[in-house]
Amino acid sequence: MKYWLIKSEPEVFSIDDLAKAKNQKTFWDGVRNYQARNFMRDEMKIGDQVIFYHSNSEPPGAAGICEVVKEGYPDFTAFDPDDLHYDPKSKKDSPTWIMIDVKFIKKFDKFVPISQIRENKILQKIQLLQRGNRLSVMPLTRTEFDELMKMGK
Question: Are 40 and 72 spatial neighbours (Cβ–Cβ below 8 Å)?
Answer without folding.
Answer: yes
